[in-house]
């Protein structure tokens, strides 16, 4: 619920209330991380044995690196660190503010395939096993299947062109082979982009 919503229900000045909440009620000005919050924030008390590290864009294309506690399941106390940018040196410098003994208790970190992420995990959490995010593996597999499908599609187009030319030279009608669903090999390969990834029970 926003302050603007409270304005409508309680007939107060939403802008003034919003300002008062930020400046006084929330304790924002006395926040211990205020001086560096634009660059990084660290919550070592949220550290757990299973972490995840990833980058995301919050606004205007600005990238941030997030480290989260997987056991918290994105709920309260799940954020361990957030760092502006994706430079491994910057992220490592922030994470190394956590005492070494605590960092050594991390057993597993889920990450993507980038070299910078591997460097961060290897340096900041040297005892942890590195687990590649399954969505990145799935994307690689999907890309490989699509590349193979496209190759077979071009082969099918070439084969169809050759068969049409051969039929033309023999003054015969070209009748391509059709599968049980009525598609030719070329048509099936063109339409199967999403079919290849459809669950067998759907």
TrEMBL record:
Q: Which stretch is the leader sequence?
A: none
Q: Which residues form the Transposase IS204/IS1001/IS1096/IS1165 DDE domain?
A: 51-200
UniProt cross-references to Pfam families, sorted A to Z: DDE_Tnp_ISL3
Matching PANTHER family: TRANSPOSASE FOR INSERTION SEQUENCE ELEMENT IS1557 (PTHR33498:SF1)
What is the name of this protein?
Transposase
Q: Which organism is it from?
A: gut metagenome
């Amino acid at each position: 619920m926003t302050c603007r919503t409270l304005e409508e229900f309680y007939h107060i000045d939403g802008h003034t209330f919003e300002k008062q909440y930020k400046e006084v009620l929330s304790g924002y000005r006395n926040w211990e991380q205020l001086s560096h919050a634009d660059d990084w924030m660290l919550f070592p008390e949220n550290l757990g044995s299973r972490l995840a590290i990833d980058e995301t864009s919050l606004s205007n294309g600005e990238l941030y690196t997030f480290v989260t506690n997987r056991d918290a399941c994105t709920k309260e106390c799940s954020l361990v660190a957030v760092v502006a940018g994706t430079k491994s040196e910057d992220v490592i410098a922030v994470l190394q503010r956590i005492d070494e003994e605590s960092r050594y208790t991390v057993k597993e970190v889920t990450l993507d395939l980038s070299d910078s992420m591997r460097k961060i995990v290897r340096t900041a959490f040297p005892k942890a096993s590195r687990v590649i995010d399954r969505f990145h593996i799935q994307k690689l597999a999907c890309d490989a299947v699509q590349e193979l499908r496209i190759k077979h599609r071009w082969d099918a187009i070439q084969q169809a062109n050759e068969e049409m030319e051969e039929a033309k030279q023999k003054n015969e009608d070209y009748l391509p082979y059709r599968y049980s669903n009525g598609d030719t090999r070329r048509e099936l390969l063109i339409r199967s982009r999403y079919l290849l990834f459809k669950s067998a029970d759907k």
